[in-house]
Amino acid sequence: MEAPHTFAVTLEILSENEHDPDPVAVNTFATDTIQALRQQGYQSQPLSTGKRGGPQLLFQMVSQEIQAIGPALLAQKDTLDVLSALCTIVTTMKDLLSTLFHVSRNQPPLGHAITVRMKIDGAEIEMTSADIADDERIVQLAKRFHALYPQVHPGPQSQVTVQAQVPKQPHRPRR
């Protein structure tokens, strides 16, 4: 028999106004909330706030039942997993990629940018500095990669290579 999955979250209940707290209201709300959550199958464990009788209460809430995602999201789960992995890879390499583009702008011949390609598990995509400028563009790059290579499912063990192709510098006449 498979062990049940658990989901834990810290629940913090505190007074709306920290300068004029109402500990009775906080305690009443916390008691009612914990009771309602227990009826829904949650287990609760009080956590220490480090203060005795303060205007803040912490609880570790644990559910044995993980809610299943709806059919619309489930149908897209594989795509979402791939896009998430691609975004993680590109975001992790963003500083490296940005440095390549930055250095290239300061190298002769000016105006001749390098070509940067990223290979993930052998699948290759060319990118520009605009492709990694912000999170939205990184998502668009990930979508473009996935559209080109739907069979590639990157993960933590993926082989990632960044290739920077530098243009030839013009010859300087000898003196």
Characterise this structure.
It is built from four helices and six strands. With 175 residues, the protein is of the alpha+beta class. It has two domains: 57 residues; 94 residues, no CATH class. It has a three-stranded antiparallel sheet with strand order 1-3-2. The chain has a three-stranded antiparallel sheet with strand order 5-4-6, with helices on one face. Strand 4 and strand 5 form a beta hairpin. It is elongated and about 85 Å long.
Please provide a brief summary of the model.
The protein has 175 residues and is of the alpha+beta class. It has 4 helices and 6 strands.
Summing up helix and strand content along with how strands pair, one would put the structural category as: alpha+beta
Tell the overall outline.
elongated
Strand order of the largest sheet: 1-3-2
Number of helices: 4
Strand content: 15-25%
Q: Indicate the percent of residues in helices.
A: 25-40%
Q: Helix and strand string, N-terminal first?
A: EHEEHHEEHE
Tell me how many strands there are.
6
What's the gyration radius in Å? Answer: 26 Å
In whole angstroms, the N-to-C terminal distance is 83 Å
Uncertain parts? none
Largest sheet: 3 strands, antiparallel
**What is the number of independent domains?**
2
Average pLDDT taken over every residue:
79
List keywords for this structure.
single chain, 175 residues, alpha+beta, 2 domains, 3-stranded antiparallel beta sheet, 4 helices
